[in-house]
Write a sequence for this structure.
């Protein structure tokens, strides 16, 4: 039990599907994060929510849409993905304002066919 | 541009050996250097370093930070097969989106 729970653990979707990844943290943290982990690349930060306010990241394609309804829950809505979006998607939470460390969930292994 | 560079990217040693993993960083408004171990899924936190020259230890693992040279090392002594993992280094700034990860070092311990 890591304190950060992600579902589903595995997801296979076609390029025309719409799906959502879910993350829940039980640590009382103020900040939540979505990271993408591809083979042989560093962890890529996709989105950050701090006190439920989103920190903009203009480099992420619009086919990824985050949602943070409260400080304990974070979603990543997926639509019309590409095969190159196949990766491990990790959710993390932290105390916020740079007061690390982050605590990670087990991730969702996403395959886009 | 902020960056974290780890070396080596891959390392294979025999059980009982000592290894040193390297991490250099350039992070705006640097606040902390973090080490994580990733075995199968979730990276698990090992150390957070904020001050130069103060070694942090946890069993056979230890780490130290050099803020002048912008460098950190992670040492593992008397390695065991259970130490096989990817070791991630990250530099943290003073903003929530300023946590920059390196590519990681893939460590494999041979029995």
């Amino acid at each position: 039990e890591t304190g950060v729970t992600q579902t589903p653990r595995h997801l296979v979707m076609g390029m025309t599907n719409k799906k959502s990844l879910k993350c829940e943290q039980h640590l009382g943290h103020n900040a939540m994060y979505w990271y993408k982990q591809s083979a042989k690349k560093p962890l890529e930060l996709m989105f950050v929510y701090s006190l439920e306010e989103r920190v903009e990241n203009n480099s992420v394609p619009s086919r990824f849409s985050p949602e943070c309804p409260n400080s304990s829950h974070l979603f990543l809505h997926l639509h019309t993905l590409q095969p190159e979006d196949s990766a491990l998607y990790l959710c993390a939470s932290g105390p916020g304002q740079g007061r690390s460390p982050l605590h990670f969930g087990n991730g969702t292994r996403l395959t886009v066919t | 541009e902020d960056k974290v560079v780890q070396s080596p990217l891959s390392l294979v040693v025999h059980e009982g050996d000592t290894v040193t993993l390297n991490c250099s960083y350039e992070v705006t408004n640097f606040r902390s250097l973090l080490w994580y171990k990733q075995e199968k899924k979730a990276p698990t936190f090992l150390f957070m370093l904020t001050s130069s020259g103060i070694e942090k230890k946890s069993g056979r693992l230890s780490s130290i930070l050099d803020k002048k040279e912008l460098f950190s090392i992670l040492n593992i002594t008397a390695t065991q097969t259970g130490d096989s993992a990817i070791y991630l280094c990250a530099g943290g700034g003073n903003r929530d989106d300023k946590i920059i990860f390196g590519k990681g070092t893939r460590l494999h311990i041979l029995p």
